[in-house]
Amino acid sequence: MCMFLQLHIAATGSSTDRSSETNGRGTQPTDSLSRGAMTTWAKKHDMRFGKFGNSRGFTHRLDNHPEETALCKHPRNDDTEYTDLTPMAAYYLGQKVVLTHPTNNHVADVRCKNNTNIVDTENLIFVVDGDEDPCCINSTKLIVVEDMGISPFGRNIDPVITTTYPKPGFQNAPKYCEDEGNAMGTYNFTIPMDMKPGRHTFVWKWIRSPRVNPFTTCWEADVFATKAERDAHYMATGQTTVDLWDFYQINTIVDGEIVDPIDPVDQIISG
Fold first, then answer.
1. CA 232, CA 229: separation in Å to the nearest integer?
2. Could you tell me if 169 and 9 are in contact, meaning their C-beta atoms sit under 8 angstroms apart?
3. For a tag on the chain, would you pick the N or C end, based on fewer CB atoms within 10 A?
4. For the stretch 3-13, what's the b/e string if a residue is b when 16 or more beta carbons lie within 10 angstroms of its beta carbon?
């Protein structure tokens, strides 16, 4: 997984190291609602066992001929690397999955950074056609699941745009100015309704700048046809069926605590 996408997988969401999820408002997921782990070395990369934002071998940049570099940092090994402690993600068709990542100082937000030209070039989620690891960035087995857009940037953009959340792309981090190095950013994507149920490898790809080679992260997930089937799988494996996306729609969270809702709730957070 990439240093930036410490994918920490959560439920409706899932998060990536290979993954995690939040509501997109900058609140970190709880351990009980985070599910899934990065391919191979799952415990090493699971963010429950370390500080969010710390680099512990996540970085995977396709340097030196990216067309020849393995897309996944570690080979797939479902039998040994996914356990009760570090389970594989489980999705259902139509589910919204949220990925979390540390921002690593890479956000244009004029509340704390006098630079609106923080480049964001490409943010994609792929699924792999077949059971084998994809060879490289040009693999014909990669099927685009979702283009998650790019964050607004540029020397001449309205500074207010940089402080308005949620935003597309890598820089969706409402609490960025609280910790520029380790602040949490989030993406989300939806499991396609026409995806074939079964076990799949998912791939995140981020191009920060055209001058920098792509960063990637891979993770496996079991995809079920319905939420009922996915929930039955979770119950059989001793996991909660509550999904973080739904949890944050139902509850108002302030500093990690559930509080009485403020009415009305403004979904747009602006600086």
1. 5
2. no
3. C
4. bbbbbbbbbbb
pLDDT tens column, 51-63: 655 555 667 888 7
189 or 16: which leads in pLDDT: 189
CB atoms within 10 A of CB 109: 26
pTM for this entry: 0.77
> Amino acid letter at 106?
H
User: ω before 261 within 30° of 0 (cis)?
Assistant: no
Smallest Cα–Cα separation from 195: which of 221, 158, 228? 221
Strand spans (E) along 31-161: 89-92, 96-102, 122-128, 142-147
Strand 215-224 to 252-254 pairing = unpaired
Burial of residue 194, with CB atoms counted within 10 A of its CB: 0-12 exposed, 13-18 middle, 19 or more buried: exposed
The 3-state DSSP class for residue 43 equals helix
Q: Give the Cα separation of 152 and 137 in Å (integer).
A: 25
**Scanning the structure block, which residue is given the tokens 């009485």?**
260
- Residue 185 CA: distances (Å) to CA of 25, 80, 119, 144, 252: 9, 30, 15, 21, 19
Residue 252, judged by CB atoms within 10 A of its CB (0-12, 13-18, 19+), counts as middle
Residue pair 224/129 in contact (Cβ under 8 Å)? The answer is no
Beta strand 164-165 pairing with 252-254: unpaired
